[in-house]
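call fold(seq) -> tokens
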Amino acid sequence: MGTEAVDDVDPIGDEELYERLKTYEGRPTAAPGIGKDPVNEPMIRHWCEAMGDTNPAYTGPDGIAPPTMLQAWTMGGLSGYAERSGAYDELSALLDSVGCTSIVATDCEQEYLRPLRPGDRITFDSVIESVSPRKTTKLGAGHFITTRMDIRVDGEPVGTHRFRVLKYAPPKAGSASRRQNESHPSRRPSPVINRDNAGFWDGVEEHRLLIQRCADCAELRFPWLPGCGGCGSPRWEAVEASGGGTVYSYVVMHHPPFPAFDPPYAVGLIELAEGVRMVGNVVGVPCDEVRIGMRVRLDFIKADEAQELPVFRPLVDAATAAGVV
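ret:
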């Protein structure tokens, strides 16, 4: 994304607007809260059943909560929380006033500092951590807003949750940016690359499909994670997968249409020969001929000038592959 000027934003000057936006950084989005329920075994069980996670670390008298449940313990349910700061609403209204009336969630990040256990009662507070300078995107020009929630137990930090949105002005009909978007193919959204998965994307650049193997129990895993789901070890090594696999499940995407994607297309959950599963497009065959059990092989496509992506192609023609179901 760049920061070049466009012709469809801002009656206020960029510098003046950004100075006003920066004043919201550090302001709370809500009053400090207390989780409505303590960390508890029934919610952990429901979560694990929904996710299909059978890790024994989450069961029994010494069980812990799955780290990815971090935000769940802060949620207010249908009744919500009584006190809400006006800072975020004011920030949103200011951006609305300069034409940034649309919003899209872009990504979130979580950091885990210690496990949560049944009986823990969490407290949390949330602030507007940062507002970016104006950015030009394929959706339109606008500002990224990052909020940060800090979560504690008995005053001890246990985790952090960051959530980022883009508040933007969609190009106006007849504007130069709208005409440019219509005359040039849209670029595919780039994957979020962080310290936990950077090795995987390094492998993709070399046309290698890398998965992780625990250095203690040798369990293979994908997607990339900072620790082993089997034994909890943080030690691991990268190994190259053969690239062969079968379609374990799939969906055919028809709606909604989105720039850079041309529906209908098939997205498969691929069971690799090594036993782990990954999500990827199934290409090289009409999407209505993809079948569960179809044998596929790894390939790489150049999505645009900036990124390559792993995809899967049938090993044989669709009619033969369908016969293995």
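Residues 244-322 form one domain.
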